[in-house]
Design brief:
The chain is about 40% helix and about 20% strand. It is of the alpha/beta class. Strands 3-2-1-4-5-7-6 form a seven-stranded mixed sheet, with helices on both faces. Bound molecules: S-adenosylmethionine.
Length: about 240
């Protein structure tokens, strides 16, 4: 994302009053460190998102990065495209995230930063839509309508890339906790962050995701990455392209 290391995430390391988690300036400032130490496989998923996207982007085609945060997936798409033309519409509702993203190196004028709610952004003539770790932050009732709009806005040869935490049972939940501990988070940090996320992050099972892609009109879906209780999906509008 950036050549310089991100400041360390210490947001939850002192006892604090319970406040719902928000993607504000304090989170934006430590976000690369936070997501790398919290989401197993994050760096692999981001890099492969770029490769997947590039496979579907041609003739200066359009990619949406919905819930882009600091633009990690956007940057991966640009890198995978080399100097080839494309248009990446990078959308986030957090002004703090977009302010920081715009200051990071590596982006160029192929990127259009848009401060908006993904539920209100028009999806038009897309070859690629990326929705990495975002659906889980939307109210459950808004997820299917968003996916259906994405499906309608994708070209026939396009692709939707979705990454999410899954409700996958206590075994993987326990391992995920150990992953965070191994990455230097204390019990206090883990439990305070979990409490802060409780009202804002609602996760679904893999089966719920697969059924919802079908209901949204996608012809086929595959899981292309899985690590503990985290997964990444590709969904194609008109069935498996191979
Ligand atoms: C976990 S981060 C996504 C990480 C990013 N896609 C990546 O791979 O680095 C979730 C992002 O979604 C954004 N977000 C959440 N709800 C949103 C909404 N309704 N509209 C736009 N952005 C939203 C948040 O501001 C936050 O930046």
């Amino acid at each position: 994302m950036s050549a310089s290391p991100s400041p360390r995430d210490r947001l939850f390391d002192e006892p604090r009053q319970l406040v719902d988690f928000a993607f504000d300036e304090t989170v934006a400032a430590v976000f690369p460190d936070m997501i790398r130490r919290s989401v197993p496989g994050y760096e692999t998923v981001v890099a492969l998102t770029g490769l997947l996207a590039a496979r579907h982007l041609d003739n200066a085609g359009r990619c949406y990065d919905l819930g882009c945060s600091l633009g990690a997936s956007t940057l991966a798409v640009l890198r995978a495209m080399g100097t080839n033309p494309c248009e990446v519409i990078a959308v986030d509702s957090s002004a703090a995230m977009l302010d920081d993203a715009r200051r990071l190196p590596g982006f160029d004028d192929r990127v259009d930063w848009v401060e908006a709610d993904v539920r209100e952004v028009e999806i038009d003539d897309a070859q690629v839509v990326v929705l990495n770790y975002v659906l889980q932050f939307l109210p459950v009732k808004d997820r299917l309508p968003l996916l259906a709009r994405i499906r309608a806005g994708l070209r026939p040869g396009g692709v939707l890339i979705v990454s999410e935490k899954l409700a996958a049972g206590g075994y993987f939940d326990g391992l995920h906790r150990e992953f965070k501990r191994a990455n230097g988070y204390s019990e206090l940090e883990i439990s305070q962050k979990r409490a802060a996320l409780e009202n804002v992050m609602r996760i679904d099972t893999e089966e719920v995701h697969l059924a919802r892609f079908r209901d949204a009109g996608f012809g086929a879906t595959r899981v292309w990455f899985r690590c503990l209780n985290w997964a990444s999906f590709v969904a194609w509008p008109n069935g498996d392209p191979r």
